[in-house]
Amino acid sequence: MDPDPPEVPPRKKFNWLRLPWLALVFTLICLKAKEFFPFSHFPMYSRFPAASTCLYLADETDQVLFSRPTFDVASSTLKKIMGTKLKAAKKAAGDDVALDELPEAVRQKAGLEVLEWVMATHPPKDPAVIHGKLRLYELEYRVKDGKIETTRTLIAEK
Amino acid sequence: MKFLRSIFVWDPPVFAGWELTIMRVLFAGLLLNFFSNGWWNFLPELLTSPAEGFRHIFLFPPPTVTSQPHPHGIANWFDLSFIRGDMFPVLRGLLLVSIGLYAAGLVLPLSLGYILWFMVCLVSLRLSQGYTGHSGQVVGLGVLAQWLGCLAGPLWKREPGWWRAWLLSRGVDFALPARLTREAVVAAYVVAGVTKLIASRGRWLSEAPNFVLQMQKASDETWYSLAFRPNGEGVQAWLLAHPWACMLFLLPGLLLEQAAFLMLFNRRMSALFALGLVSFHLVLAYLMNLSFLQNQVALWVYFINVPGWLVLWLRERGSQPERS
To answer: Helix or strand or coil: residue A55?
Structure first.
């Protein structure tokens, strides 16, 4: 007599409702809407251009003002605000002008607007730490001969 | 081989009631963190100076912004500045009550609905200043998914008295909201992976040698913001000397994001993949001070699920016959 066949667990019936439909819908909405909280297309680090920049604040003596403890704002936020101002200037100047080809005066005006924004929305906790005018500096990085070359530019002061 | 086969089986996890309760309570903690800007930072203060600790954790201040010069999301249609006005203490009180009710599993459609509404108004106002941040979207998508799950579950069943059950969350199964939260988190990672290819027009990996510039930028941004530098200097120097290695360094992250949907397959894949994504976040936090802490917590709660694995392990251990 044959031994008893081994017990085989019953195969689960396929249920199309168990498929991740919401994941699909959310994916499509995020890609289409781009930025509409809570939806986003999460563009962080989606490009690695040949140059990158960082903005920071200093006073008239070039003493660095660390932006979180002094103004409660991040350096990355300054860059995003500057980007928004430059895009507005680019739109006004005509769409065929590249962001990095905008005239110096336009960049300076955008920088001044960034400084005004900082003082209006994130005033310093202790104004005495700023000696003289508030300055906005830009550091630009490029790879040259296997090294990172950094260029510092004073964008605006107020 | 057997293990490999087991992780690719389509067998979405069915969580026990106690697992779902733990997930909900931990997610409530994450929500509190979202609004109070890191309540766990104030835990020591709660012991040394309870009144100050309580104030920091629960009585978080209104947003400092007063207008919406660059409207984001629903700010295109509504003026959201009301949220920072005289009503703020009342709105914040209602939020804290809602988070408490949510943790207790009570009136979920209403409590989650309020949390979602408050979160969308607050964040949309903050993002209407001309810059976009991406630290809160995963939590936001999770809340939206849970709310949809809480609405859809009882409506779908349409049992007698369903509307009462719907309103009071009596007998509402949290399995569907939890499943949809997992799907929302997966969608966020897949989107991030797809966007990298769309935005770079498929050149993301070939542009990867320039990643060293992003490391330098992140290091300087951390320095000029917080007066300390992340630990990426040695790795950055090595990647600068070996540009091809940037591709190898970044490729696992891209693959983890694009294949994140595999996390929905089964418990094992869920935990393995989520541990991979958490490791990816930890490496970026160490090298570039980019922690995405909210994402990490969501991965631990809904995908790695330590309590679930612990109980499974204990049960398996208990069911094994003792060796003589």
So the answer is: strand
HSE at residue B279, side-chain half, CA atoms within 13 A, is: 11
Alpha-carbon dihedral sign for residues B26, B280, B141, A76 = positive
ipTM rounded to 2 decimals: 0.92
**Shortest Cα–Cα distance, A1 to chain B (Å):** 30
Nearest to A83 by CA among B196, B313, B131, B317: B131
Q: Residue B262: is it exposed, middle or buried by C-beta count within 10 angstroms (0-12/13-18/19+)?
A: middle
Closest approach of chain A CAs to the CA of B160, in angstroms?
23
For residue A19, pLDDT over 80 is answered with yes
- CB spacing of A47 vs B207 below 8 angstroms: yes
Q: Percentages helix, strand, coil for chain A, rounded to the nearest 5?
A: 40, 25, 35
- Mean predicted lDDT score pLDDT of chain B: 90
Determine the 3-state secondary structure of B68 from DSSP.
coil
Residue of A nearest to B176 (CA): A18
The pTM for the full model equals 0.91
**CB of A22 within 8 Å of any CB in chain B?**
yes
Amino acid, single-letter form, for residue A72: D
DSSP state of B55: H
Q: With a CB-CB cutoff of 8 Å, which residues 50-69 of chain A face chain B? A: 50-57, 64, 66-69
What would the pLDDT profile of B243-265 be if each residue is shown by its tens digit? 899 999 999 999 999 999 999 99
Q: What is the C-alpha end-to-end distance of chain B, expressed in Å? A: 31
- Chain A's closest residue to B124, CA to CA, is A37
Q: Assess contact for B190 and B257: CB atoms under 8 A.
A: yes
